[in-house]
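Section 3.1 - Work completed
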Amino acid sequence: MSYQNKASFPIFLIIWNRLQKQSTPNIHLRMSYWLEENWKKGERHLLLMAFRSSGKSTITGLFCAWLFYINPDLRILVMAADTALARKMVRNVKRIIERHPLTNHLKPEKADQWASDKFTINRKKELRDSSMMAKGISSNITGSRADIVICDDVEVPNTCDTAEKRIELRRRLHEIEYVLVAGGTQIYIGTPHSYYTIYAQKPRKEIGEDNIFLQGFNRLKIPVLDIENKPAWPERYTIEDIERMKNQTGLAKFKSQMMLEPVNITQGRLNPADLNIYNAKLEYTEAAKQSILSIKGKRLVSASAWWDPAFGSAKGDGSVLACVYTDEDGDYWLHHLEYIKNSINSEEDEATAQCQKICDLVKKLYLPSVTIETNGIGKFLPAILRRELGKAGYACSVIEVNSRQNKDIRILEAFDAVLAARALYVNKNVLKTPFLTEMQEWVPGKSSGHDDGLDAVAGALLSEPIRLKKIYGSFKNRWSKSNNIHNINSDFEI
């Protein structure tokens, strides 16, 4: 692309501001130089992160108008969290094209080419797609083609406040690859609204991420305060203004929206950073007529398996089995978390099929007992599970518990002290389940999304471990250290 006899983008910006009788702050010049420099170098994956109300969307709109000034045959798709926000940028670019002395010749004569959500400027090529078009993130973009896709604030609380929404947002954004022409450009503009933001600079290992979402994107990050604690836009925000804003909005929101630090704005109570992640298998050995079960050289002395059953709707509660071991030092090992899904092709009824899966886990995990929460559908499951364990020849106790305690209180009591002591170890395979996301998002009384895994692990942590010296069966589970059989009063609230 030849730029001969064409004004640079910073000059284009200054001309527009003078026409509006406005000055051009240094922060906007910084953005304009960065955008033009990367465009000329052929950088086609860009992320502009700047604090709220910094004018980043306005500058990007001007950049779109400048690109049309450079090459009228370009096609630009604007995507935002909703269509109304995307239209706002399109209207802004239309206004610039109409009034800027370098672009007013691009306005088409036909009114039908000058709509509020899309327009086509005077161009040489006959192309099916409009010059610029606005779409919400949930809109259908199948069949569209674009040379440039602008993602303007696609991440907002409404699109990222639950794990399901974040998955859907990423799925939608992956569709951009089918819209962009070869060598096309993606420009993201926004601020982080979640700890698991699409703008993160480090992968979130605790939820199984190996790479960040915007891998390979060239970034410009402008927080409201620089590393020397000086305002990035002193003409608009003084130190006093910034301090007042911090006090009014709260530290978490200020860090997220003004300092561009990914945090959990909802301030979840349970922090995955307090977990100890390990990658090791159960080790079963026999020595001196004793069975020994261990993890990473730590001898295990008890196990607690809690099953919170559920059937049916994918949007309802999930059926989850949590298996927690305790070692000689009193540390807890969350070794397995199973979100049970019944096979569509299963010949058994759903209750029997789930019980058979529990039987398989009993053998695999050397479980001496399984506790079933008998609230609701769990009332008739213990009998079915005992029947299936008998058929398989597995000696495993089935304990029935009716939970009458408030779920939020139960979760707090189970996790607070254990996490504070950093005494909970979690197998790496558990990271592949929704458990870590449930932890991050859980807020007492305000939990969004599902907490089925969290609830099952809480039950396992709170239930009395079963320590048996010897159980006769078709597989080895005589690994418990205790030499005595204890009678346990199971009539308690969990």
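Second construct:
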Amino acid sequence: MRIDTPMLLGPNQPSQAYPGGGRGARFRGLDAQGSPEPEDWIASVTARWGQAPSGLSVLEDGTTLKDAIEAEPEAFLGPDHVAAFGADPFLLVKLLDSAERLVVHCHPDRSFAQAHLGCAHGKTEAWLVLEAEPGAEVYLTFRREVARDELGDWVSRQDVDRMLEALHPIAVQPGSAVLVPAGVPHAIGAGILLVELQEPTDFSVMLEQGRFQGGDLGLGFDVALGCVDRAAWSLERLSHLLGPGLGQHGAVLPGAADPFFRAEHLLGSASDRIAGFGVLVVVDGVGELAGEFPGRPLPLRRGATVLVPYAAGPMELRGDVEGIWCRPPAPDAPRPARPEV
């Protein structure tokens, strides 16, 4: 295994409780029947909650990416990143495709995770929509303040209608970008394929059980519901969670995402350059990555996912191709417990 070249990554699809719609497989150019899982964990050093090693990416030589990074962190992540964050990539990227609406759930923030789960990361995430059926929606944040007892009653009785009525529905289309702060309740509607950037954990509190069992992170719901943001979000405040999206060249997420992760829409026609550690998801076209790394330029097409180690050096995206360049936070980025919006 060479660390001084970009690495094409194949699918990494840990089993999930909900069905995929085949969009992820078709995006990758795979047989949808042979790759039915709804999630593809790209360059993952994160295991599924309670199911390790499921979820960890495995490289061509059989080494997990987690072990490879821990063995040579500066080669993968760069000295500035390691000085700031250690051998932790501070990033997980996924492809997510559901044949049905996902359950209403939320994720703990960093302070809750540190206090109750012994982890430095919560799970703030962001969605970049690649495909969406007409009328597709996501659901995000409460429209009114919800009392703790009221929320507990909804969860215990599984009153899903009340949960959904209390959430803001947001229409999405290809190109939409949505930041999802840790703590806010949310759900992704059916018929959507998206790239998800997130903190590298698998922590979820399932307000709606659906196909899932448990969902309280082993804490009991009396404790787990303490991570839920029950505040009322106005439409004006909610608007700050919507980024420029994939309709423009450059940064696609709102600035509040910067302490957690970064994403840019790159164009081969602009000969965009990249450098440092990150994950490139090719969303359209055909092209190549060229640089001073050994060997020929790396050919790219829609659906390719590429791990770019720091040691591979700067490189250029060329051709009639578009990609999403996903990166961890900058080493000097502020580190709030949750996005301030």
